[in-house]
């Protein structure tokens, strides 16, 4: 079995558990940057040189072979460039979700199977059995949402040893096992944006292009330096000099890269209760009459009805949601079991609502 070891406490304990269970385990750290110094380090790091060293030390304690695989070129093409292209198109991507899909359960798993390993073990907080994905028991750490982009076949070769345990217990277990990463802080934000400034990162890749910030009726209320620097539901950083007529804050309602405009309006204008999603993944049985949907990582869960017609998934929410952005994943659940996921293409408020 191949154990993906990020350098954090979760993947270290996951590798230790499968090794203790009697599996023949090899640890692998993925080097994802050609220039690791440009990625986050320290408490907010992910997949850096520092993390590679932490992963190696954990593998030594566990007593398993350890290697570093260079996946920087694949990561740049499938995650970083995809991230930039999605923002340029007016959508809001989730790079962690894309990394799971394209790197950990495509590039890594494909290489593992080609080398004769039968499965890949990771430190994700989720549960899987015969390709069926479900939530982890720790509601605050559950990662089934970001794993729902994986196919059933990929999930049949995946093992998530932490799905039945809380994060607090994992840290205690790491300490008992003598793993130095027991108290290492979790990684946060986007690993390939070193200072956390997404707008500046995108400006460096896409350049500046001034445009209008408008109300829904077309009235110009401000200017911006690039529509790619905004996301649906955004409130802060709009820099609008003209106050709203009702004195309440404005929110980003729409982003149009074609004419480089950003439309803003009141919070209630964000309400949607119908979502159209494309590129479905994982659906292998008929959808139940009623299910639930999660629209962002660790976000609220909404009751819904859903109809899958070919590559088009239509979701009608039981109550309106706000801040639904194209490019994010819509993950359907039957209780705690993942039914499948699709990429949000558009959303609207039904006229009958």
What would you note in describing this structure?
With 353 residues, this protein is α/β, with parallel strands linked by helices. Helices cover 25% and strands 27% of the residues. The protein contains eight helices and 17 strands. The chain has helices at 9-20, 49-62, 72-88, 95-114, 144-147, 152-155, 167-176, 198-206, and strands at 2-4, 26-31, 66-70, 120-121, 126-129, 132-135, 158-159, 211-214, 220-224, 251-256, 261-265, 272-281, 291-294, 301-309, 312-321, 329-334, 337-348. The strands form four sheets. It has a six-stranded antiparallel β-barrel with strand order 12-15-14-13-16-17. Strands 3-2-1-4-7 form a five-stranded parallel β-sheet.
Rounded to the nearest angstrom, the distance between the terminal CA atoms is: 51 Å
Shape: globular
Number of helices: 8
As a whole number of angstroms, the C-alpha radius of gyration is 21 Å
Number of strands: 17
| CATH superfamily heading of the largest domain | HUPs
Total number of distinct structural domains: 3
Q: What's the oligomerization state?
A: single chain
Give the overall pLDDT as a whole number.
91
Q: Helix/strand-derived class?
A: alpha/beta
Strand content: 25-35%
Helix content: 25-40%
Poorly predicted runs are 40-45
Overall CATH architecture of the largest domain: 3-Layer(aba) Sandwich
CATH topology of the largest domain: Rossmann fold
Order of helices and strands: EHEHEHHEEEHHEHHEEEEEEEEEE
Largest sheet: 6 strands, antiparallel, barrel
Which CATH class of the largest domain applies here? Alpha Beta
Family: Belongs to the MnmA/TRMU family.
Function: Catalyzes the 2-thiolation of uridine at the wobble position (U34) of tRNA, leading to the formation of s(2)U34.
Subcellular location: Cytoplasm
InterPro entries: MnmA-like, MnmA-like_C, MnmA-like_central, MnmA-like_central_sf, Rossmann-like_a/b/a_fold
């Amino acid at each position: 079995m191949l154990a993906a070891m990020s350098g954090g406490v979760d993947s270290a304990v996951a590798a230790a558990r499968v090794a203790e269970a009697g599996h023949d385990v090899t640890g692998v750290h993925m080097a994802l940057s050609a220039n690791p110094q440009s990625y986050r380090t320290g408490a907010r790091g992910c997949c850096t040189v520092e993390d590679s060293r932490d992963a190696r030390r954990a593998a030594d304690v566990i007593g398993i072979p350890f290697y570093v695989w260079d996946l920087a070129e694949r990561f740049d093409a499938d995650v970083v460039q995809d991230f930039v292209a999605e923002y340029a198109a007016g959508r809001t991507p989730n790079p962690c979700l894309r990394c799971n899909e394209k790197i950990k359960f495509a590039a890594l798993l494909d290489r593992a199977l080609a080398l004769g390993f039968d499965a890949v073990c990771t430190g994700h907080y989720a549960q899987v059995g015969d390709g069926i994905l479900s939530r982890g028991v720790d509601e605050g750490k559950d990662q089934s949402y970001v794993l729902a982009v994986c196919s059933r076949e990929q999930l049949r070769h995946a093992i998530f040893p932490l799905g039945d345990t809380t994060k607090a217990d994992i840290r205690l277990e790491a300490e008992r096992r003598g793993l130095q990463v027991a108290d290492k802080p979790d990684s946060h934000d986007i690993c390939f944006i070193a200072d956390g400034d997404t707008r500046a990162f995108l400006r460096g890749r896409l350049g500046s292009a001034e445009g209008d910030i408008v109300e829904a009726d077309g009235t110009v209320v401000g200017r911006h330096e690039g529509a790619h620097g905004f996301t649906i539901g955004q409130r802060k950083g709009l820099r609008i000099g003209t106050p709203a007529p009702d004195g309440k804050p404005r929110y980003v309602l729409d982003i149009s890269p074609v004419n480089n405009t950003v439309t803003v309006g009141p919070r209630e204008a964000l309400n949607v209760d119908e979502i159209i999603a494309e590129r479905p993944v994982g659906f292998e049985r008929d959808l139940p009459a009623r299910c639930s949907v999660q629209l962002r990582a660790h976000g609220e869960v909404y009751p819904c009805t859903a109809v899958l017609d070919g590559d088009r998934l239509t979701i009608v929410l039981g109550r309106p949601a706000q801040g639904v952005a194209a490019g994010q994943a819509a993950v359907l659940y039957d209780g705690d079991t993942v039914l499948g996921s699709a990429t949000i293409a558009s959303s609207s408020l039904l006229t009958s609502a």
